[in-house]
Every structure is written in structure tokens, then in C-alpha cells.
UniProtKB/TrEMBL annotation, chain A:
Residues 13-29 have a biased composition (Pro residues). Residues 187-205 have a biased composition (Polar residues). It comes from Trichoderma gamsii. Residues 206-233 have a biased composition (Basic and acidic residues). Coiled coil: none annotated. PANTHER family: 80 KDA MCM3-ASSOCIATED PROTEIN, LEUKOCYTE RECEPTOR CLUSTER MEMBER 8. InterPro entries: SAC3/GANP/THP3 (IPR045107), SAC3/GANP/THP3_conserved (IPR005062). Residues 268-488 form the SAC3/GANP/THP3 conserved domain. Residues 1-29, 61-92, 172-262 are annotated as: Disordered. GO terms for cellular component: nucleus. This is SAC3/GANP/THP3 conserved domain-containing protein.
From TrEMBL, chain B:
InterPro entries: Csn12-like, PCI_dom, WH-like_DNA-bd_sf. It comes from Trichoderma gamsii. This is Protein CSN12 homolog. SMART domains: PAM. GO terms for molecular function: double-stranded DNA binding; RNA binding. The lineage of its organism: Eukaryota, Fungi, Dikarya, Ascomycota, Pezizomycotina. PANTHER family: PCI DOMAIN-CONTAINING PROTEIN 2, UNCHARACTERIZED PROTEASOME COMPONENT REGION PCI-CONTAINING.
């Protein structure tokens, strides 16, 4: 059950010596398409128009590009449709949701202009109100104004067959609120001759229905003061578009209409970027590619030990697995390896994320090194003094698991600490299986302080320094002496020709405050 | 449906909130087991609002205290109720899901909250909030179990843009959702600025208790603290807890006590649990049992007291849980204690008392060491002394022998024995010090084992 990379195989308790991590940089010739994260607006180049064949199934390429003109549409905040005439009207929750859904960027349709959309929306809700059907209409399943507009057009199309194409392809931007700077993006919007009706294939009412955009946020958008926020939002949006664009060029492919996406990206390395919109298949690597990525990363880790690079890569791998809902033994091994690397580098926050995932993956019955990691989990909760977590972990263990060596070790560590049996605790510390020592190193100092407090109260007038060394698991008398000196105990050490004495009787409450502060809540969020 | 609104009118005439709340119950009364079905059948979705309006008007026409706006609000509430009942009946027939019931009950909750915010519902009607909130929570739990049974539903649209799976959240997503709505009711009660006698503030403890239950079920009891903090910020405006119904007080005290218990603040925990114990109805055995489950471990740590047989008499389950442990602690039998703890582990862990009870071993150890001290007898009387003094210099070897015996013959090495002794001294369970180079323990002449009479 030893980890599969060489650098991790240190004897427990020994702090590993690593070469100083190289600065965080991608290799000069990366295997993936480099993406400029922030691109100035002026440099923005319109994506090439997608091949017309994609129009029919709303390819991701089309989807990504279609959201480009969306930038402009978004620039003018949604006008408050729910404008009460005179008295205050209470709009049903469902109507509000419907309005929000209509303005959701996800549902933007380049072919339906803002003005058209608003007019349609007002019309729909207005007539519902007049008919008193506000509360009876199933707003959640009501077609969006965009769809209604298109339906109207199609009806027209049947009437005037020949004249239709023009009105379909030219978005009408009548809103004069657009500033010239924003207008630029219209230029290519007009070039875009496709009208991707992607929301019709956008797996029904999946995402937009589940995400609730709180009305307050919409109000904030309406607020002219928040233009800075809006600008930021636009910037962010553009950044993602660029990301999509890069991916689309490499491999444009349609998404299956339902279910989790299946990735089509072939690049091995990918920089981690937190998703703020549904993932795009062309930017996600399928399991086959991810397996190669894992091999590559293992090699790189052995060779370069660049943790920030490795961590970033593992995070993007995890993301790709998640969005494709791949939960199998390969998933387990990705999380296990990332957990081990994070442990080794003391990145406790990242480690914790991995172990949380591992817990549920094991619970699904997937094979892996569950004994090893369950033991880590116990040690981790000891470190964070998380009683709830410990209790839950105990509840999870089967009788057979409790007898497995690593778990038994971790459980013994727990109970010796609970009962203050530092003697046994430090014996266990010196004999920790797997990589548990990395975890134990994190709380061994505070336990030493606790034990020292105990000894100072219990023994009089003194003990030999060697006794401290042995009881508290130090490597040498010098280490033990250094520890005492570090906590202002130099005056308690007395050289007596044959041995060094530690004057416990004179310590008083010297170590108590250090002990107390060492036991204060551990910050687990600190990530590297 | 007419009966329903007769009840409605009667409740309004008497301003009886509990009577009104009963009309919103999703449970058929024993007097009328067909109640729900009848209600459900008595209308249809296109005419339900009109029907309800008619019934409210015809039954309450003689009352002037029901304003136009209020009627409008109640129509919404009962329309939502009728809708939810429809789903509820359908579930019983196997034609619907608890998730649907939950969703429609949620609509009812929203309609009711709107009633207070927009249609001027009066404060005496708050028991409606109790009933609606109570069942919202129950339906959320049922919906969650239902979904976990039909496992592996690839719902989780939101999960699609997350970096990692979050199975825990998904498992209880409805209950989490429910928490949001209960919190809305909480705010509704908390923020009412009406004069106290007609304030919704009187609903606050009922709803807090509901929230506590929810948080405990969600395994995030610590969130209850946020509620308590909000509450204490409003303390000045809030009626005193003592003015609330006893049932709400007991529950509140109990949860506050358990909260402290989980935070390892056993002194505070004991205080609240004792209050709950004293307030609790003498026949509410299930609740008394709950309180004792935490009060006993508390007492064990704070004052080293073990439960008597008499107090456990009415609770066979607690006897099984605690009596074996108590016996081992009394006798100072470490080995038997370990076994008893191990045997009860599953139950203890489930009730979150394992980690606390484990520390009872210290008391067992203290009792064992005390026996050694007593067995050591008295020093010879010195000149001028009249009362005999116990031998206070005890060789570590004697303690070691006792420990080896107590651990079932297992050999405990001297360093470990000293370690345990140092612990006893540190925890003030024993007074004295270890003189390591002489291999003896020097115990205090006055009370070597505080609180035990020697």
C-alpha cells in the first residue's frame, strides 16, 4: 500500500527533504493550447462562423459563439418588466422565476433582440394578468420569450416564405443605451449568420431551473452605481468566451442532448479554472485521455516536484471527472494520488477536499486503498479536533476495518490522546504506517506541550532530560532541550555532570499558555 | 370543503389559532378519516380559488373582522393547501411522490408567509406557521429518503459545474432547502415590530426548535449557534422565555444543553439539561430519556456522579446503555470498562456520547488507584499524634501491580503507569507528586483523592 512515487517513501516521522519547488511555470512547449486568460477587449477577434451544418443540433461551438454577441445584450440591464401600474402588484414567485429565466445569459438568443424579448415578455405577462391567469399558468414550463418570438417568426415564415431569411439573421439592436465601445461587438454579431436554437436542445429544464438568481442581484444589476460590477462581470464573461473559443478551434463537436456531457478534448494538460457556466464538451477530457494525463503527471511529479503545477493539474482533472460524472476506480486513484501529494506538501485544505470525495467514493463500493485513507481521515480529524467528524468516522467503520493495522493505529492514537496517555501516544507516533506521519507531524507539537504540562505538574523535583526525550518521542536529547528552550524553559535545564536535569518542580505554569494556544482551533482552510 | 371553512370561521370568531391551524393539517382526523380525500375531491384546479372564496365568504359573512385583503390571502393559502392535499392523497394511492408533496407544501408555506407580509394576517394565527413548518420538515425528510431509495438519479444539475461531487449535500438536499424556508418563518417572527401582545414574536421558540431539529438532522448542529446569536441580538425586544409554553421551553433548553454538550462545555450543558429535566412533563418518557442520555455523561464528567438504579428504573434502554459502564467505573475495573465501552460503541456513537463516556475511564482509574491508597493502610503514629494518618508515600510499583490486574493481567510498563499517574494529578483527580528517582508517589495528607472522602 505504499504510494507509487519514490519521493513519498520516507520513513515515518522523518521530514522529507525535497528540492526547492521550481517556480510555477508551464513548460515552454505545452501539450495544450495556451489560453490567454485576460484579453483586452480591443484584441478580441470574432470567432469564425461555425459551419452551417451545426445549426441543427446546436453545437457547443455555436453555443459558445452565440454567447459572444450576448455580451452586448447583457450590457443593458434587464428592464424591470414587473413594473406595477399604479398600485403595488404582487407577482407570483413563478412569474419572477420566469422573468429571471428569460434574462438569464444562458438563454440569450442572438437572433432575438433585447427589445423584442422585452416586448414579448411584457405581452405574455400582461395578458396573463388581464386574464387573471397569473397564478394558474405553469410558468416553470412556459416557453421562454425567445422561443415564442421564434415561433412567431416561423409562423410568419410560412406565410412569407421568401422574405423570412433577412429578419432571421439580422439581430435588431434598437436600444440606444449601447455605448460605442460596446457596439464594437455588434459588428461581429452581425456577421454571425447562424441562429442557434440551442436552448431547445439544452436538456430541457435542467440547469436554469435549479439555479435561483435572487431578485436582489438583478436589482443590483439595474443599479447604475454597479456599473463597475457589471464591467467586471463582462470582463469575466469574455475571459470564458476566449477559453471556449480556444477549445472550439481544436475540436468542435456537438453535445449529446441529455445527461452528463462526454468530453472530446484530446489535450493532456489543462489549467484549472473554476466553472461558472455549464462545461463545454470540447474543453473536457474523456477518461481515456485523463488516464494518459495521470501517467504524465505522475512522471512530472517525480521529476519536477512542482507542487503548484501538479495541484492545479489535479484540480482540473477532478473537475473533468466530476462534470462527466465518472465515478469509478480510476476516479478513486486520481483522488488518492492527489491526496497523497497534498499530504506530503502539507496542503491540508486540498487534502481534505480529496478525502471527503474518497469517503463517498468508497461508500459507493469502489475499490481503492480505503483502509489507508480511512486511517488518514481519523488522524486528520484528530488534527482538526473535529469531534463531529470523528464521531461520524467511527460510525462508518466496520468491525473488520477496526482490526486493520493502519486504522487500528489511528484509533489507538485517538484514544490515547483522549485519555492523556502520552506515553503510548509517542510510541504510536514513532510507528506510524503509510503516510500518516505527515498528519501526525501536524499535531505532535501541541501534544508534546500537553504532555510537558502534565509532567511538570506530576513530577517533583526533577526528571532527567533523557526521560523527556524518550517519553515525548524526540530524536535526541538535543532536540528535546531545543524544544524546551523554544518555549522559554532554558532555566529549567540543569547540567549535572552525569546527566542533564529538567527541573519540573520549578516550571509552574510555564507551558500552559503555549499549550492553550496550540490547542485553539486549527485553521484547515489554509491552502497553499 | 364546507366543514373546512366552518372550522375556519369558528377559529376566526374565537380567534383560536390552534383551531385554525388544525384546518391546515395534512392528517385526517380520527373523527373523519376521509377528510383529506373529501377535500381533494370537492373541487378542481380551475375553480378551486372561486370555491374557496365562496366558502370563506358564506361562512364568515357575519364577521366584520376579516378584511378584504385578508380574505384574498387566505384564498391563496387554502388553494395551495388544496393543491398539496391532492398530491398527498395521490402519494397514498401510489400515484405521486413525496418530492411532489414537498414541493406543493412549500408553495403553501410561501403563500402563508406572503399572507403575513402582504395581506395582514393577524398574530393569533401563528399556530398555522407551526403546522405548516412542522410538516414541511417532515415532507422534506420523506422526499430525501424517497430519492435515496431510487438511488443514482442523475439529478444534480448544479453539481455539473462543481469541481467535486458533493454526495452529502445531494443526499439531504430537500432538507437543506426546507431549512431555508424555516428560516424565512424565523425572520417573519423575529422582525415583527407590532406591540408584544399582538406580535408574531410569540412564534419564535417554536420555529427555533424546528430549526434545531433540522440542523441536528443535517449533522450540522453548530449552525444552531447562528440562530441563537441572532436571537440574542433581539433579546431586549423578545418576551422572556419563561412566558412561552412549557413544551417549547423544554425542547429549547434540551437542544441548548445538547449543543453545549457537543461543544464539550459540560458545565453549561448540565445547567440547561437539568432545567429541561425539571420542566419536562413527568409522563413524557421518551423526552425524559433523551434528556438523561446526555445528562448522565455530563454528570459523570462534571461531578463524577453515576446514575442510580432508581433513576434509570423507568428507562430500560438507558439501563442497558449505562448500567454496565457505571458498574465498572464504581469497581475501578479497567478491563471490564473497555469491554463495556466497546460493546456499546455503536449505540454510543449513534447518540454522540461515545467520546464523552470514554473519559469515564479516568474515574474508573481514579477509583482503582484509590483502592491502592486505602489498602496501604496507616502510618505508625508518631509522637504527639492521636489520629492515624494514611500512608502517603506509595511505591509506583504498587500502583503498577494494581493497573496490571485491572487491565486483565496485561503488563503495563512503569513509564506508562507514571504517565497515567501524572494525568490523574494534572486533572486534579489525585493530589500529590511523583518522585521519579525514588520510584514513589507522595500523596497529599489532606485529601489525596479529592471528593472521595480520603
Amino acid at each position: 500500500m505504499m504510494p507509487s512515487w519514490s519521493s513519498a517513501q520516507h520513513p515515518p516521522g522523518v521530514v522529507p527533504q525535497h528540492p526547492p519547488p521550481a517556480s510555477y511555470a508551464y513548460p515552454p512547449n505545452p501539450a495544450f493550447i495556451p489560453v490567454q486568460v485576460r484579453q483586452g477587449f480591443g484584441h478580441y477577434t470574432p470567432p469564425p462562423p461555425p459551419p452551417p451544418a451545426y445549426n441543427m443540433y446546436a453545437s457547443n461551438a455555436a453555443q459558445a459563439q452565440a454567447s459572444a454577441p450576448g455580451t452586448t445584450t447583457n450590457a443593458s440591464p434587464p428592464a424591470p418588466v414587473e413594473q406595477p401600474k399604479g398600485g403595488k402588484t404582487e407577482w407570483p414567485e413563478s412569474v419572477r422565476r420566469y422573468v429571471q429565466r428569460s434574462f438569464h445569459p444562458e438563454n440569450e438568443d442572438a437572433s432575438v433582440s433585447r427589445a423584442e424579448l422585452e416586448a414579448k415578455l411584457k405581452d405574455t405577462i400582461g395578458s396573463a394578468k388581464e386574464n387573471n391567469s397569473l397564478y394558474t399558468i405553469d410558468w416553470d414550463n412556459m416557453p421562454l420569450p425567445q422561443a415564442l418570438v421564434r415561433a412567431d417568426r416561423e409562423a410568419q415564415l410560412k406565410l412569407h416564405h421568401h422574405a423570412a431569411s433577412l429578419s432571421l439573421t439580422t439581430p435588431v439592436y434598437t436600444d440606444d443605451k449601447f455605448n460605442p465601445r460596446k457596439r464594437k461587438s455588434n459588428d461581429f454579431a452581425n456577421n454571425d449568420t447562424s441562429t442557434p436554437p440551442w436552448h431547445s436542445t439544452n436538456s430541457g429544464r435542467s440547469l436554469e431551473d435549479r439555479i435561483s438568481y435572487s431578485p436582489d442581484k438583478r436589482v443590483a444589476l439595474d443599479d447604475p452605481k454597479s456599473s463597475k460590477f457589471q464591467k467586471e462581470a463582462n470582463k469575466r464573461k469574455r475571459r470564458f468566451e476566449n477559453e471556449y473559443k480556444a477549445a472550439n478551434i481544436s475540436s468542435p463537436s456537438p453535445t449529446p442532448p441529455t445527461g452528463p456531457i462526454v468530453g472530446t478534448s484530446e489535450v493532456l494538460e489543462k489549467k484549472y479554472l473554476r466553472l461558472t457556466a455549464p462545461p463545454v464538451a470540447s474543453n473536457v477530457r474523456p477518461e481515456r485521455v485523463l488516464r494518459q494525463t495521470l501517467d504524465l503527471l505522475k512522471k512530472k511529479w517525480r521529476k519536477e516536484s512542482n507542487y503548484s503545477y501538479i495541484c492545479d493539474q489535479f484540480k482540473s482533472m477532478r473537475q473533468d471527472l466530476t462534470v462527466q460524472r465518472i465515478k469509478n476506480e480510476f476516479t478513486v486513484s486520481v483522488y488518492e494520488i492527489h491526496a497523497r501529494i497534498a499530504l506530503e506538501k502539507g496542503d491540508i485544505g486540498e487534502y481534505n477536499q480529496c478525502q471527503t470525495q474518497l469517503r463517498s467514493l468508497y461508500a459507493m463500493g469502489l475499490k481503492g486503498n480505503h483502509i489507508e485513507f480511512k486511517a488518514y481521515r481519523i488522524l486528520y480529524f484528530i488534527h482538526t479536533a473535529n469531534r463531529t467528524g470523528l464521531n461520524d468516522t467511527l460510525a462508518d467503520l466496520t468491525a473488520a476495518e477496526k482490526e486493520e493495522k493502519p486504522i487500528k493505529h489511528a484509533l489507538d492514537v485517538r484514544s490515547t490522546l483522549a485519555l492523556g496517555n502520552y506515553h503510548k501516544f509517542f510510541q504510536l507516533y514513532l510507528d506510524t504506517p503509510n503516510m500518516g506521519a505527515y498528519l501526525m507531524d501536524m499535531f505532535v507539537t501541541r501534544e508534546r506541550l500537553a504532555a510537558l504540562c502534565n509532567i511538570c505538574r506530576g513530577y517533583k523535583p526533577d526528571v532527567k532530560l533523557r526521560f523527556i526525550t524518550e517519553e515525548l518521542g524526540f530524536e535526541s536529547d538535543a532536540d528535546a532541550a531545543q524544544f524546551i528552550i523554544d518555549y522559554q524553559g532554558q532555566h529549567l535545564l540543569e547540567d549535572r555532570t552525569e546527566y542533564i536535569a529538567f527541573l519540573t518542580g520549578k516550571a509552574g505554569n510555564l507551558f500552559e499558555s503555549s499549550r492553550a494556544s496550540a490547542f485553539q482551533k486549527v485553521d484547515i482552510k489554509g491552502q497553499i | 370543503m364546507n366543514d373546512l371553512f366552518k372550522g375556519f370561521a369558528k377559529a376566526h370568531a374565537e380567534q383560536n389559532g390552534y383551531l385554525l391551524a388544525a384546518t391546515l393539517s395534512p392528517i385526517a382526523s380520527s373523527a373523519n378519516p376521509q377528510r383529506l380525500r373529501l377535500i381533494s375531491k370537492s373541487s378542481n384546479s380551475s375553480s378551486v380559488k372561486g370555491d374557496i372564496k365562496h366558502f370563506i365568504k358564506s361562512n364568515s359573512s357575519h364577521q366584520r373582522n376579516l378584511g378584504h385583503e385578508e380574505v384574498k390571502g387566505w384564498v391563496e393559502v387554502y388553494a395551495a393547501y388544496w393543491n398539496a392535499i391532492g398530491d398527498f392523497v395521490a402519494v397514498e394511492d401510489g400515484k405521486s411522490t413525496w418530492t411532489k408533496v414537498y414541493e406543493s407544501w412549500k408553495d403553501l408555506t410561501s403563500a402563508l408567509i406572503r399572507g403575513y407580509n402582504n395581506f395582514g394576517f393577524e398574530a393569533w394565527t401563528i399556530p398555522c406557521l407551526y403546522v405548516v413548518g412542522k410538516y414541511l420538515r417532515l415532507f422534506a425528510i420523506r422526499s430525501d429518503t424517497e430519492r435515496s431509495r431510487s438511488a443514482n438519479d442523475n439529478s444534480g444539475g448544479a453539481a455539473l459545474i462543481q469541481d467535486d461531487f458533493d454526495p452529502e449535500t445531494e443526499k439531504q438536499s430537500q432538507l437543506r432547502d426546507c431549512e431555508q424556508h424555516l428560516k424565512r418563518i424565523f425572520t417573519l417572527c423575529l422582525n415583527d415590530r407590532a406591540p408584544l401582545e399582538e406580535s408574531r414574536k410569540w412564534g419564535i421558540y417554536f420555529i427555533i426548535n424546528l430549526l434545531f431539529k433540522t440542523y441536528f438532522k443535517l449533522n450540522s448542529a453548530s449552525l444552531s449557534r447562528t440562530i441563537l446569536k441572532t436571537l440574542s441580538a433581539y433579546k431586549g425586544d423578545m418576551p422572556a422565555l419563561s412566558a412561552f409554553p412549557k413544551s417549547q421551553r423544554v425542547t429549547f433548553k434540551f437542544y441548548e444543553g445538547v449543543l453545549f454538550f457537543l461543544e464539550e462545555n459540560y458545565i453549561e450543558a448540565e445547567k440547561y439539561l437539568v432545567e429541561a429535566w425539571e420542566l419536562c412533563h413527568k409522563d413524557a418518557n421518551a423526552n425524559l430519556e433523551r434528556i438523561l442520555t446526555y445528562l448522565i455523561p455530563c454528570r459523570l464528567l462534571t461531578s463524577h456522579l453515576l446514575p442510580t438504579k432508581a433513576i434509570l428504573e423507568p428507562f430500560p434502554r438507558l439501563q442497558k446503555l449505562f448500567l454496565p459502564l457505571a458498574q465498572c467505573i464504581r469497581k475501578g475495573d479497567l478491563r471490564a470498562f473497555d469491554i463495556a465501552l466497546q460493546e456499546g460503541e455503536d449505540e454510543f456513537v449513534k447518540r454522540r456520547i461515545y467520546l464523552t463516556l470514554e473519559r469515564g475511564r479516568d474515574i474508573a482509574l481514579r477509583n482503582l488507584l484509590r483502592k491502592v491508597f486505602i489498602a496501604g493502610g496507616f502510618d505508625e503514629l508518631k509522637e504527639g499524634e492521636t489520629t492515624p494518618v494514611r500512608r502517603t508515600r506509595v511505591p509506583v510499583a504498587e500502583f503498577r501491580a494494581a493497573l496490571c490486574m485491572g487491565s486483565g493481567g496485561e503488563l503495563v510498563d512503569t513509564d506508562e503507569v507514571e504517565c497515567l499517574l501524572a494525568n490523574m494529578i494534572y486533572k486534579d483527580l489525585m493530589k500529590g507528586y511523583i518522585a521519579r528517582d525514588r520510584g514513589i508517589v507522595v500523596l497529599s495528607k489532606k485529601g489525596a483523592f479529592p471528593g472521595t472522602g480520603v
